[in-house]
Amino acid sequence: MGGTFDPIHYGHLITAEEVREIFGLERVFFIPAYIPPHKDKGKVSSSLHRYHMVVLATLDNEHFAASPIELLSKGDSYTIDTIAKLKGLLPADYSLFFITGIDSFMEIDTWKEPLKLLESCHFIINSRPGYDLTVIKENLPPTLAEKVVSITPENPFRADLLSTPEDREWKTFIFLVETTPVGIASTEIRQRVKENRTIKYLVPESVERYIIKKRLYR
Fold it and tell me: What is the C-alpha separation between 81 and 113, in angstroms, rounded?
């Protein structure tokens, strides 16, 4: 699960936990971008601050982990490069999923090598308030639309859908899943801090303390 995480909040954590449960994931790696290509570089907090907040937010979940892989790489953070590095670090028989929201996925044509990226790993696209997941299939070319699988209580995820590296034809999927709508945005949190308003219950207590201690977003 990649992102700017400026700061990480309960919306990220709730979505990640629901996706982990639905897909039976062994581990969810939260990967803060070093330099987010789609963000104004002058308005993004230090990568170390963002990474430290992710570490604090994920400590109490044994299935969550913070990864510094993009911080260590330096330079602009491109998902396709990160996926390639992860595949080099993980055992060959692991299935790799990239978790992102529909709002981000709708702009995937602006990402680096999007077609190659969608062939490199499985994607899990979660719902967001104000977006309709069904529009994804309608806006994809036929070769990509055939990859789309909607996961619902009536049509649960099955691991046997996945191909393995040993299969003659490696196939990746784009899974659509409805998650609990959580109307929390990092932009709003930063604005609240700037206005000296409470962010309690929007972020974990440890993250709130870190923001106060480091005087972020002032």
Answer: 10
Torsion sign across C-alpha atoms 14, 19, 25, 29: negative
Q: What would you report as the CA-atom Rg of the chain, rounded to the nearest whole angstrom?
A: 17
Tokens 């629901």 correspond to 18
CB atoms within 10 A of CB 147: 17
The single-letter code of the amino acid at 32 is: P
Omega before 7 cis (within 30°)?
yes
How would you write the pLDDT of the chain (218 residues) with one tens digit per residue?
A: 999 999 999 999 999 999 999 999 999 999 999 988 767 666 899 999 999 999 999 999 999 999 999 999 888 889 999 999 999 998 888 899 999 999 999 999 899 999 999 999 999 999 988 888 988 888 888 888 999 999 999 999 998 888 765 665 678 999 999 999 998 999 999 999 999 999 999 999 999 999 999 999 99
- The 3-state DSSP class for residue 144 equals helix
Distance, CA of 187 to CA of 68 (rounded, Å): 23
CA proximity to 122, closest of 139, 105, 109, 141:
105
Domains identified in the chain and CATH numbers: 2-193+205-214 (3.40.50.620)
